[in-house]
Structure formats: structure tokens, C-alpha cells
Amino acid sequence: MHLVTSDAMQKIEQHLCQQYGIDTLLLMENAGKNVANEALSILKEKNLKQVIILCGGGNNGGDGLVAARQLLSVSSAYPVTVYLLANPEKLKKDPLYNYRVLKNTSARIIEVASVKDIEIYPQSLVIDALLGTGLSKPVTGLYRETVEKINSARDVFVLSVDVPSGINATSGAVMGSSVKADYTVTLGLPKRGLFVFPAREYTGKIKVADIGIPIILQEAFPIKDILITPHLIIEYLPERNPDVHKISAGVVGVIAGSPSMLGAGILASLGAYCAGAGMVVWPLPFSAASLVKIHLPEVVTPLVESTQAQRYYMPSVAEFLGKNFAERKCRSLIIGPGLGVSPATSFFVEKIVQASSHIGGVIDADALNCIAGERQLWKGRLSGWIITPHHGEAARLLGSSPKEVAENRFEAVKQLADYFQCIAVLKGPATLIADPSGNIFVNPTGGPELATAGSGDVLSGVIAGILAQTGKHLESAICGVFLHGLAGDMLARNKKEITAKEIAYQIPAAKKVVRDGQYRIPFMDGD
Ligand SMILES: NC(=O)C1=CN([C@@H]2O[C@H](COP(=O)(O)OP(=O)(O)OC[C@H]3O[C@@H](n4cnc5c(N)ncnc54)[C@H](O)[C@@H]3O)[C@@H](O)[C@H]2O)[C@@H](O)CC1
Ligand SMILES: Nc1ncnc2c1ncn2[C@@H]1O[C@H](COP(=O)(O)OP(=O)(O)O)[C@@H](O)[C@H]1O
Ligand SMILES: [K+]
């Protein structure tokens, strides 16, 4: 599903008016009618008694004015009160037109000079039409007080028009203060910011309303942001042929672990198997291999020589390992979980990535930190790899701070993919995946339950496991992230405390839910 920024939405709207000669008034009418229809269903379903519509001075407020008229035209059962937070004399074009028309109806229209003028009774449907995509600065003064009044009202249902007022429709940030909605009717095309945090805590369920933007026009604009839907994942799920054997099913090579962090590699290997890889090959020194066998006997552990107490891999073995992975027909690799960070490890990472770039795969965790230490050296050189940083690792890779990354996630993931010319997975709530051409995919699955040690190791394994089966980098990253999140969501239905191993074991069930067509995005109303 394509997502739009505020800018893109404005351009599409302008194009529609110029190219097709459609008046913006018609779009506003369609928007308001859609809102009124949703409002009517909610009024009935929730057994509410009246409607309170809060309108700002722009087009979002105009939508609210149309909704008021449309509601009154289809039902006289619900009194409608409109609070206008603007001087009617200062209204422009479409909102002004709709204000004048509404004056001729039975709607109560109150011009708000102070927040005390606003009365919100229990059992009301509150329609928030204060601010939409035109939000350009933090919400302050009367608007802020109104937002806070809405949020503190009890026993009401809040429907936001287009976006909850105060949410930046492009980034998902809260600009000072935002309405906390129970339901958001987003107009025409879904706004990108609604699908990431913190916005997702403010939208309630999201419904996309058709306001008459032709599909052909949507396709004419190069929209690069996409919400990952189950329809997309069904296409990307790896399927096994009946005549498959363990090698043709997909072999994953692993470079992971150190004496203090062997578990990271075990979890990554488990993730790869649970995602359907036919075999996992993890070269290790004898002592470490013996330990791995106890926990995961399925892993093949060719012996590697190490004279070091702190690490398993010496730079001198990199070339041999690269060749060995190719001989064993590895179709993807996982490099990084639990490797530790030291100058020697950095040198080893540099060599192993080079020696195995013909295979490619996932670079995660400590290997990312090694790369970050020499970021200029790696510019444009990770083609064929998928990197999976969390915010801290991403900040190191970009030479910025975790705060900057957290505040500009779309930009950060795009920069990572562009700078290193790879597929970048920026982990965290609503994980983002970008490719070097600037496409960004937003993941709807996964919640705070996933924040458990080793969860990221499992994710790198799942992605590499899918890649070994399909050979498709972007698709594997998208599919892996989605399934990992869905596995967490499924486990979280029964308990909130989950472990990384459980996430891995839940992957096949997550796959089945998608394959059977049973999955719906929980915070969306309709597909
Ligand atoms: N783009 C489209 O295709 C359509 C847009 N429509 C509606 O139009 C909205 C966008 O309308 P506008 O561009 O008029 O913008 P808004 O209605 O979002 O904002 C209106 C005004 O608020 C002011 N403003 C910005 N930030 C503020 C703040 N923090 N506190 C107080 N005032 C602030 C701005 O100066 C702007 O003039 C959409 O969200 C949607 O609801 C619909 O009418 C249908 C079609
Ligand atoms: N609050 C959250 N909501 C959704 N997903 C989360 C949240 N916190 C963590 N995750 C997910 O859990 C995983 C954690 O990975 P990572 O930080 O690398 O952990 P570790 O290093 O312990 O394995 C990532 O897939 C991330 O997206
Ligand atoms: K709004």
C-alpha cells in the first residue's frame, strides 16, 4: 500500500485539479461525506448521543464543516455542535464556502475565543478537524488547550479527520501536542507518518477513505514509501519444491560468536532453520563447536583454527572461510552477531566481507560496529548485503547520534541504503527497510515484546534463511522483518514476556497465518 507525505498529497491534489479540472470543493465534499458516513456508523455502534465537531481555520476544518452538514442531511437523531477555532471572516475559499452553507442548517456553530467556550459532554462523538497535513509548527495556545480538552474528555469517542491534529503527517512526530484518536479517517491516500511511532499511539484504527483520486493519477506519481501488507508477503514467502534436498533448500553460512557471546550465533542459526533454510554451516574452533552441538545439533560446524582466547576468527582465515562457504554452496551468510569489537576483529570483518561478497547476506551487530569504525572505506561497497542496525548502530554507521536517527528514521534508513549501496533495515518499533533507489517499506508487525536479548540475532537468521531460499535481497529483508514481528505479536497474545528462542520457533506458525490469508493489520480498518 502506497503511503504519501504531506508534500506528495498536495502535489497530487494540484495535479488533479489542473489536469482534470476537478474543483477542490468536490474533494472536500467527498472527504466530509466519508467522515459523516463513518461517524454515523460509530454513533450507532457505540450508542452515542450527540456530535461535537472541532474545526480549525484551514481545509481540515473545512472537511469538518462538510461532515456536519452531511450528518444533518442524513439523520436528525443526533444534535451537531460545531466549534470553530477561527474567525469566520478570515476563512478562505473552500472552508468559507462550507461555513456559509452550514449557517443555513440546524447545526449549532460556536466561534471559540477561549477553551472555556467548548463543552464536551459524555457519550459524544468528537470529530477532530482542527489540523491536517497543513500543520507547520508546534501546536500552541488555543489549539493546544483544545487538544488537551479533547484528550481529557471521558466517555467520548474521538474520530480524527485525515490525521490526529498535532501529528506530523510526513514524519509521525507529535508537534507539541496531539489529539489521541480512537479512529482516524485518512483522506484519499494514507499519510506516511500515521504508520510509524509515536503517531501510531495516537491514531486508533486507521481507515483510508476514497475521495475520488483516480488510481491512474496515484500511479503517475513516484511514491516511494510502502506499507508492508500481507498481500505483499504472500508473494515473497519462499516455497519448497517436492524434489528439494537440504542443499537445494538453501544453505546459510554463519560467522558469529566469541567466547563470551556464543549464544548470538546459536540464535541466528536457529532463526535461519526456522525460516526454512536446509542447512546452516558455522565454522568454529573445536571447543565452541562442542558447546553449540549441545544446544543446536542441527548446525554443521567445520573446524577453524584459533590461537586467540578472546575471539574465534583471525584475519588470516578469512579467505579460506570465503572459499569454504562457496564450496559448501552457501547462498547467504550472517556475519556479525556476538563477534565482539577489536581492531583484529575489524580487520577480519573487512576481509571476510570482501572474501564472500559473491555470496552476500546479512551483516549485523558487531560487524556493523566494525564497519562503522571505517565508514568512509565502506562507502558504496556493500552491494549484495543487507545491514540490520538498531538506532545506536545506525547512528555509528552514519556518523550521527541515536537521537538524530530516532527523530529522522525515514531519512536515516534512506541514507544508510544510499551510502553503503545495500538493503538497510532500521530496527525498532515500525522497522523500516530501504533499498538504494530510495524505496522505503514500513513494517506493521511487532511490538515491545520483541525487545528481548537475542531477538535481533534471530531476525538476522530469519532474513538470511529466506535469502538462501529465494536469492532476493529486498524481498527477503521485508519478509523476514514482517514474519519476525508477526511471530512476536502471536506470542504476545498469550504472554508479554517472550524469549528470543520462542520468536524463532514461532516463525513457521507466522508463515502459515500469512499463507492461509488469515492475517489482517490490527490497526487498519479494511485492506
Ligand atoms: N490534499 C487534498 O487532496 C485534500 C485535503 N483536504 C484536507 O485539507 C487538509 C490540509 O489543509 P490545509 O493545507 O488547509 O491545512 P490544515 O487544515 O491542516 O491547517 C490549516 C492552517 O493551520 C495553520 N497551522 C499550521 N500549523 C498550525 C498550528 N500548529 N497551530 C495553529 N495553526 C496552524 C496553517 O497556517 C494553515 O493555514 C488535509 O489534512 C485534509 O483534511 C480535504 O479537504 C480533501 C482533499
Ligand atoms: N518496542 C519495540 N517494538 C517493536 N519491535 C521492537 C521493539 N523493540 C525491539 N524491537 C525489535 O526487536 C529486535 C531487537 O533487535 P536488537 O536490538 O538487535 O536486539 P539484540 O541485539 O538483543 O538481538 C529488532 O527486530 C527490533 O525491531
Ligand atoms: K485532524
Automatic annotation (TrEMBL):
Keywords: ATP-binding, Isomerase, Lyase, Metal-binding, Multifunctional enzyme, NAD, NADP, Nucleotide-binding, Potassium. The keyword NADP applies. Residues 9-219 form the YjeF N-terminal domain. Gene3D superfamilies: 3.40.1190.20, YjeF N-terminal domain. Its cofactor is K(+); Mg(2+). Binds 1 potassium ion per subunit. AMP binds at K427, G428, P429, A430, T431, G456. Residues 229-514 form the YjeF C-terminal domain. The keyword Repeat does not apply. InterPro entries: Carbohydrate_kinase_pred_CS (IPR017953), CARKD (IPR000631), Nnr (IPR030677), Ribokinase-like (IPR029056), YjeF_N_dom (IPR004443), YjeF_N_dom_sf (IPR036652). K(+) binds at N60, D128, S165. It catalyses: (6S)-NADPHX + ADP = AMP + phosphate + NADPH + H(+); (6S)-NADHX + ADP = AMP + phosphate + NADH + H(+); (6R)-NADHX = (6S)-NADHX; (6R)-NADPHX = (6S)-NADPHX. CDD domains: YXKO-related (cd01171). (6S)-NADPHX binds at residues 59-63, 132-138, 143, 162, 264, 338, 390, 457. Its EC number is 4.2.1.136, 5.1.99.6. Catalyzes the dehydration of the S-form of NAD(P)HX at the expense of ADP, which is converted to AMP. Together with NAD(P)HX epimerase, which catalyzes the epimerization of the S- and R-forms, the enzyme allows the repair of both epimers of NAD(P)HX, a damaged form of NAD(P)H that is a result of enzymatic or heat-dependent hydration. HAMAP family: NADHX_dehydratase (MF_01965), NADHX_epimerase (MF_01966). Belongs to the NnrD/CARKD family. Belongs to the NnrE/AIBP family. Homotetramer. NCBIfam families: yjeF_cterm, yjeF_nterm. PANTHER family: ATP-DEPENDENT (S)-NAD(P)H-HYDRATE DEHYDRATASE, ATP-DEPENDENT (S)-NAD(P)H-HYDRATE DEHYDRATASE FAMILY MEMBER. This is Bifunctional NAD(P)H-hydrate repair enzyme.
